[in-house]
Amino acid sequence: VINFNKLISYLPLTAFIVAGGKGHRLRPLTLNTPKPMLKVGEKPILEHNIDSLIKYGIKNINISIKYLGHQIEEYFGNGSAKGINISYTNEDLPLGTIGSITNCESFINDEDILLINSDLLTTINYEKMYLFFKDNEADLVVGGVPYKVNVPYGVLESDNNNNIVSLTEKPTYTYFSNAGIYIFKKKFIDLIPSNTHYNATDLIDKLLSLNLKVMKYEMTEYWLDIGKKDDFDKAQIDIKNLEYFK
To answer: What pTM, to 2 d.p., does this model score?
Structure first.
């Protein structure tokens, strides 16, 4: 029985959360606390992410840990307190943002995997991203966050002979940054080398080299990468105004 009064959706995804980094840029806050366990509001960053996954019916979660990882294990345990299944992958050496997934393949029961960085605060709608992935028959989808660049001058565009073809006064360009959120097919774990430092971007490059379908999912929801002290301070303010987290 699925109670949709409590759930937004029920997605057939196994989640893999990368939580092994040392958080150097957030020191001294991370000297004795792993970055994912720093509290934003009343809960650790990682707990906000896990609770968000639970809202979408995602029950199987693997957390890749290294730096002070025992604190994460002790806090969340096997996930039974939240009605989910949590397992852990311990990195002896830093394996990048996806390298350690080869060590937990047996835990993954779904055909598709949701990979997220643990230091994000976001209200992303995972159902919309998953449906985008399925509807487009993609091999991998990466969340893209719009990033606007305002140029304070007139911009000249010219042809190969330096003939001006247009002049745009103080334009704004929109680019999409990698949000650290991915959905991809489980079978591509076979492409990831074992016990090797390997990032999600390396997997993207590999799939592109094989002419597979890699797509951008344009995110419109709130998103914040808590990488620096300024980001952490901003998160403390934002959390008070985001109804999603209440």
So the answer is: 0.90
Residue 81: how many other CB atoms lie within 10 Å = 10
Give the chain's length: 246
What pLDDT does 1 receive? 64
As a whole number, mean pLDDT of residues 76-100 equals: 90
User: Which burial class, exposed, middle or buried, applies to 71 when counting CB atoms under 10 A from its CB (0-12, 13-18, 19+)?
Assistant: middle
As a whole number of Å, the CA-based R_g of the chain is 20
According to the model, what pLDDT value does residue 141 have? 98
Contacts of 118 (CB under 8 A, 6+ apart): 17, 18, 19, 35, 36, 45, 46, 49, 63
141 backbone dihedrals φ, ψ, rounded to 5°: -125, 135
pLDDT at 14 exceeding the cut of 70 = yes
Beta-carbon contacts of residue 120 (< 8 Å; ≥ 6 apart): 45, 49, 179, 180, 181, 223, 224, 225, 226
Percent of the chain with pLDDT over 70: 97
